[in-house]
Amino acid sequence: DAMVIQNPRYQVTQFGKPVTLSCSQTLNHNVMYWYQQKSSQAPKLLFHYYDKDFNNEADTPDNFQSRRPNTSFCFLDIRSPGLGDAAMYLCATSGGGGAAEAFFGQGTRLTVV
Amino acid sequence: AQRVTQPEKLLSVFKGAPVELKCNYSYSGSPELFWYVQYSRQRLQLLLRHISRESIKGFTADLNKGETSFHLKKPFAQEEDSAMYYCALSAISGTYKYIFGTGTRLKVLA
Q: pLDDT of chain B along its 110 residues, tens only?
């Protein structure tokens, strides 16, 4: 009964070849987040949505884009992956509200070759 | 800028010993603070939040606004507590942003 599902779990892409990571949720949550986590570092927020309202972090590279076609799905597009984009990508949701719990997916580990 | 600091990357304690995982935050508004835990090969999940003032799996955390800290404590560590622990800050300037610290790996030794 996984509530936040990320596909695929492992993704290998070529340098410069566009790649899309997907996330779906069964919680009907308003807020969806994408985080990038590199080894031994904190999960770094890339962007988040409240419904269709998109909020980009100031330091998120333009190479990273996102789409949320409906409540359940959210996509992370990396237009031209570089070696430095290899990381674990985490999707999370919350119901909104300051003290709302965030629910995480298992993550997608991206390798760039 | 908002920031969450966890000064220890690794904390090793013996079973039955007290545990304290440190977390300091930088935020001028009213913080919402959380501890998340990631057990081996599992997803990140909520352990506790300051607003609930609850004890989960024997862990407690008190928000100290004067020291801008939210340290996680447990009086007697158990082997199953071994995991990665992340402190997180939310409700930043009325947004739904979540910011995480770098995490502390807790190893409880038999």
A: 789 999 999 999 999 999 999 999 998 888 889 999 999 989 999 999 988 878 889 999 989 999 999 999 999 999 999 999 999 998 776 778 889 999 999 999 99
Q: Does A45 touch chain B (CB under 8 A)?
A: yes
Which residues pair with residue A71 across a beta bridge? none
Q: In chain B, at which residue ranges do the beta strands (DSSP E only) sit? A: 3-5, 10-14, 19-21, 24-26, 32-38, 45-49, 60-61, 72-74, 83-90, 98-100, 104-109
Contact A48 B100 (CB under 8 A): no
How many Å apart are CA B47 and CA B81, to the nearest integer? 11
Query: Which of A44, A104, A108, A109 should one mutate to test binding to chain B, selecting the residue with the greatest count of B CBs within 10 A?
Result: A104
Closest Cα of chain A to B108: distance in Å? 19
- Is the CB of residue A40 less than 8 Å away from at least one CB of chain B? yes
Dump pLDDT digits (tens) for A51-102: 999 999 999 999 999 999 999 999 999 999 999 999 999 999 998 776 789 9
